[in-house]
Each structure stands twice: as structure tokens, then as C-alpha cells.
């Protein structure tokens, strides 16, 4: 299958591309390169790619692909809170436009990276795909809007699939340090402390980046009758843990690390436990990675690649890195790259 992966130079894309290629797919990337140099350890080998801002993609650029895997987005809550209108522009409007152009260009399948945070605060009950969507942030709201608008485009020629990923963890050469397990392990390696700023009670569903890639592969290859316009939570119930339990798994793998639950940010309303039975039953999805195994992998990679405090706080944290690109004059007010080598 000829597959276009948007956001291929991000944390998930960098891990996903080799997995799709190893499965025999002909992969092209599409990215504006916000994080292309944010690499820890040996540089990854990128596929052939189109360097363009998602907002400027043309129909011609989408011709000849059988499927689009759409990962490109401003990918977290702090970014969304900083610039909600740009988040809606990229994550919502440009994503819907991409889907429309892809459909016009004859692309038959559109696999979209949504998020379990569309459920917002859900309490103790396990939430399945039919639960009400109560997004709490512009980021999560943008994902709900894309699901709604792209679902309306589904027909015999166009099969969208919405993968609502749990929060990712695990090593990627284009590391993200601003997601919970990656962050806690990094902090422990650099300072000896595992600091939890909330009271530790919120539930978080987690899933390894390579397990997310496996789910996307399944969604690409499944018969369209199985996945047509379906939404699937991506993860496994055994990785629904409280923040305090996640932190304990870090203490267990980082020698000498101490657990500090400070509670300084008070209660966190983003708490939910997720039911992952639909993707297991429909697609045979199995998550290979537990949180302790992921914490151990991160510890080994951080130590062997020589993670520094500077890299951890800036290069591998999405918001300060984008702010640095902006203050260097590489991005304009709308966060378009000013210099490109397209
Ligand atoms: N990592 C997670 O925990 C997680 C969980 C659920 C959903 N997701 C979703 O998965 C997708 C990928 O996440 P990630 O963690 O790899 O994020 P990331 O920030 O590492 O990667 C996003 C990629 O999109 C590109 N991009 C952003 N805006 C663009 C634009 N205007 N034009 C072209 N390219 C643009 C960036 O350059 C980057 O390479 C996102 O849609 C995210 O919302 C991620």
C-alpha cells in the first residue's frame, strides 16, 4: 500500500514509519519539521517526504496514495492553551481540509490520530467508545471536531478510522519529555526525584509508542467493512494506572530515586479509565508493553544517550522548543516556518 504519514518527524511518526515499512508498505512522510532536530541518540532514517505546512497541502500532493495516516498536530494541552486559535487552525481546520483533499485525490483510507482525552473527566467507570465526549481543553476539543467532520465524509470510496490513543510512553529517537512516564523517568535520572505535582490520584491510560504504531498498522490493513468510520480506543486496561502508581514504577527502575507527591497543583480534573475491548475484539490488537518495561527501556536509553537537563527541559519539551523557534525568527506569528528548504 502507498501510505502518506503526516507528522512523520514527530515522536510517534519516527517510531511508526519503520514499522509500516517493515510490514511492506511504501511510506512517504509529510511534515513541516518543527522537531526534526530534536533527536536523542543516533539519528533516525526518515522516509522520502514532502516538506510543507499542513495548512498549505495541495490535492496534487495527495495523489497516488492508497491511505493517509494523519499524525501531524500541535500535540498537547499546554500548546493548545497557549495558542488556542492556532491549535484549531492546524488540528481542526487543516486536518478536515486534508481529509477532504485526500478523498478528492482518490485516497481510500484515512487513519486519524485522536486521543482518549476526548472523554475528559470520567470518574471511576471504564469509558468505552460510546461514552459521551467531554473534552476539557482546546487540544481535546480539536480532536472531537475532526472526528465529527471527517466522519461526515465517509462513503463507499472513503473509509476514515479514528484511533483514540491513550497517552504514549517509551523511547523514540525524536523523544518527547512532556508526556507523563517519559517525563518522570527523565526527572528521576537527572535529579534523583520522582516528583508528582498533583495529589497522585488521577487515572491515566498509557500505551507504548510502538504499540500505537501496531494499532495503526492493523487499522490500515483491516477490511474496510470492519473499520469503516469506526473509533477505537488504543491501549490496554492493565496500563490504566493512577499517577502515583506510574510514579512508583519509575522509583522501581531508577536506582536511588525518591518519590515526592507534592500535591501543589491540587486535584487534576483529567482523570479517566478506558475500556480497550473494541480494538482487541475487532482488530486483534495486543499491547506488548507494560509500564514497568517502558520505564526500564527509558531509563536505559536516557543513560546510554546521555540525556542532559538542558535537552530534557527544552529540546524534548514541545512548548519551549516551539517558543525557541519563534524567538529565533524561524516561525511567524501563525507558526508557519519562515525558512524552508522545500
Ligand atoms: N504522544 C501522545 O501521547 C499522543 C496521545 C494521543 C494522541 N496523540 C496524537 O498523535 C499525533 C502525533 O503525536 P506525537 O506525540 O508524535 O506529536 P509530536 O509533536 O511529536 O509530532 C507532531 C508532528 O506534527 C508536525 N506538525 C505539527 N504541526 C504541523 C503543521 N502545521 N504542518 C506540518 N506538520 C506539522 C510536527 O512537526 C511534528 O513532527 C498527534 O496528532 C497527537 O495529538 C499523541
Automatic annotation (TrEMBL):
It comes from the Bacteria. InterPro entries: Epimerase_deHydtase, Lipid_A_modif_metabolic_enz, NAD(P)-bd_dom_sf. Residues 3-235 form the NAD-dependent epimerase/dehydratase domain. PANTHER family: BIFUNCTIONAL POLYMYXIN RESISTANCE PROTEIN ARNA (PTHR43245), NAD(P)-BINDING DOMAIN-CONTAINING PROTEIN (PTHR43245:SF23). This is SDR family oxidoreductase. It comes from Mycolicibacterium hodleri. The lineage of its organism: Bacteria, Bacillati, Actinomycetota, Actinomycetes, Mycobacteriales.
Amino acid at each position: 500500500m502507498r501510505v502518506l504519514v503526516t507528522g512523520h518527524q514527530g515522536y510517534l511518526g519516527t517510531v511508526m514509519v519503520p514499522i509500516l515499512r517493515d510490514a511492506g508498505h511504501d511510506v512517504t512522510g509529510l511534515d513541516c519539521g518543527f522537531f526534526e532536530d530534536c533527536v536523542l541518540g543516533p539519528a533516525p532514517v526518515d522516509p522520502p517526504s514532502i516538506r510543507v505546512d499542513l495548512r498549505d497541502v495541495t490535492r496534487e500532493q495527495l495523489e497516488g496514495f492508497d491511505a493517509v495516516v494523519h499524525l501531524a498536530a500541535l500535540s498537547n494541552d499546554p500548546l493548545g492553551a497557549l495558542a488556542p486559535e492556532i491549535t484549531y487552525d492546524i488540528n481542526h481546520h487543516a486536518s478536515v481540509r486534508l481529509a477532504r483533499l485526500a478523498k478528492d485525490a482518490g485516497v481510500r483510507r484515512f487513519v486519524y490520530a485522536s486521543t482518549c482525552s476526548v472523554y475528559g473527566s470520567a470518574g471511576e467507570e471504564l469509558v468505552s467508545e460510546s461514552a459521551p465526549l467531554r473534552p476539557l481543553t482546546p487540544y481535546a476539543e480539536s480532536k472531537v471536531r475532526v472526528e465529527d467532520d471527517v466522519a461526515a465524509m465517509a462513503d463507499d470510496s472513503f473509509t476514515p478510522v479514528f484511533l483514540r490513543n491513550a497517552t504514549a510512553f517509551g523511547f523514540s529517537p525524536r523523544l518527547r519529555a512532556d508526556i507523563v512516564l517519559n517525563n518522570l523517568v527523565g526527572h528521576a535520572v537527572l535529579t534523583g526525584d520522582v516528583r508528582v505535582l498533583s495529589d497522585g490520584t488521577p487515572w491515566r491510560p498509557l500505551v507504548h509508542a510502538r504499540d500505537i504504531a501496531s494499532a495503526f498498522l492493523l487499522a490500515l490493513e483491516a477490511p474496510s467493512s470492519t473499520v469503516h468510520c469506526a473509533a477505537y480506543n488504543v491501549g490496554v486496561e492493565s496500563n490504566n494506572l493512577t499517577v502515583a502508581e506510574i510514579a512508583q514504577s519509575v522509583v522501581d527502575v531508577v536506582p536511588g530515586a525518591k518519590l515526592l507527591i507534592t500535591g501543589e497543583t491540587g486535584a487534576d480534573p483529567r482523570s479517566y479509565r478506558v475500556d480497550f475491548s473494541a480494538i482487541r475484539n475487532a482488530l486483534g490488537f495486543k499491547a506488548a508493553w507494560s509500564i514497568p518495561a517502558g520505564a526500564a527501556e527509558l531509563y536505559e536509553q536516557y543513560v546510554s544517550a546521555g540525556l542532559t537537563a538542558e535537552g530534557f527541559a527544552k529540546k524534548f519539551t514541545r512548548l519551549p522548543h516551539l517558543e525557541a523557534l519563534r524567538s529565533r525568527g524561524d516561525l511567524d506569528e501563525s507558526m508557519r516556518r519562515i525558512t524552508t528548504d522545500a
